[in-house]
Amino acid sequence: MATLRQHAKELLRRFVRIDAKNDRAIDTLAVDAGEQETLRHRSYSAIPGPKPMPLLGNTWRFLPYLGNFDIQTIDKLSRKLHAQYGDIVKIEGLLGRPDMVFVYDANEIERIFRREEKMPHRPSMPSLDYYKHVLRKDFFQDNPGVIAVHGESWYNFRSKVQQVMLQPRTARMYISAIEEASVAFLRRIAKIRNHKSEVPDDFLNEMHKWSLESIARVALDVRLGCLDDNADAETQGLIDALITFFKNVPVLELKIPFWKIFNTPTWKQYVNALDTIVSTISKYTAAALSRAENDVNSDKELSLLERVLAREGDTKVASILALDLFLVGVDTTSTSVASVLYQLALHPEKQALAYEEICNVLPQRDAPLEATNIDNLKYLRACIKETLRMYPVVIGNGRSMTSDTIISGYRVPKGVQVVFQHYVISNMEKYFPRSCEFLPERWLRDDGIRHAFASLPFGYGRRMCLGRRFAELEMIIVISKILQFYKVEYHHKRLEYYINPMYTPKGPLKLRFIDRQ
Predict the structure, then answer these.
(1) Quick one: pLDDT at residue 26?
(2) Contact between 239 and 212 (Cβ < 8 Å)
(3) Are residues 158 and 282 located together in one domain of the fold?
(4) How distant, in Å, are the alpha carbons of 60, 61, 63 from that of 70?
(5) DSSP alpha helices (H): ranges in 173-232?
(6) pTM for the complete prediction?
């Protein structure tokens, strides 16, 4: 508003002789011009969307039996809302939480991101916020991390760790550690295959083990042995807790928040899962810190924990960062890799091109990976991007408005949660022609057709995923190693995708891993 008024005032000054009387008149005219400009935008109440009911608002739509919004099929619901209401949709009247506005326009998303302030707010997670800031405040104290944290607290913590986390050269220092975990996963695949070279129904859980092992190597420089035959039951307990945490988040956030009144069964499961995650990771972290103190003269590569500790001198900051990495880095990365393998199995011609590239870049299968090798795996990287375009593991993210904002011509007030529906957007024809087809080649062209904000699997801006560099590295290393040794096939009914808790194929991922000669 102030900017519009000033602009109008400056224009008027060009045509009116300035004196005290005229200056006051210009101020009045400028205010009127600014208000007229604002009035040209439509009101918040005019944003289309499903109508709320008295008392229950739109929360009833998420109730079992009564409602028509299924959490596990939010992808289909999001498509339906876009088809019915257009590029902006309002879901108001959500008990215990702010309104949500879904945005399906990449230009609007870019505009919001480009203008974001120093401390942007993501849509809050009241359940995790309560856990960190109230229920377990004694543990987190003044360092609650970056997940479900906002304002000065978030900014101060992220400022301390982002130099270590977001520099590409830092991630490259862990190529050998990630490769070792990937080779261990290859051995695991060989052991669990049946006589048809097919892995068992719970293969996604094996992927979780690989991801957990990789993160432990990078973050703490510890080998958990998740992929060993005699793996510690504690590691499986940690994986189960992480899955329970993610599965319960949408239930606690979107349905009627009875957990705020009394301890519901879902809330108890959620808290128990988080307690397991915190206690297990804290034990691993304490052991890693102890080793670091006793190994000061070693010339080995520092873990991320040690790098942050050396930079900040604060064990609590280093420990909470490690916790956040485990909390959101296991399921997301493993599900992404599983989805890429599934898509390559469904598209053998694309897999053949990726394999040909790998053979050219890495002619010796047992030779250690180098950073230059990874840089040259351009087609494989395109396969990963295309999978995450079509099936992003997190189908949307967004911002909680910290001031009144104009979005798609509507005035959206402060406090509303604006959700960017990336899954729907990245599958639109206007942004990606032949969007229903798996075409990695589209990422190799530099023709200016793609909209930079139409596919954002890691988010964007100041709150972009902190672990992005490491997740991308883990994915390209493990997939390249798998394709070096195995041809991946799938011989069953094609699977749909659903939220469980990441966006993943629904059903057993019974892939065949055929030995390459």
Answers:
(1) 42
(2) yes
(3) yes
(4) 11, 8, 8
(5) 175-192, 203-220
(6) 0.88
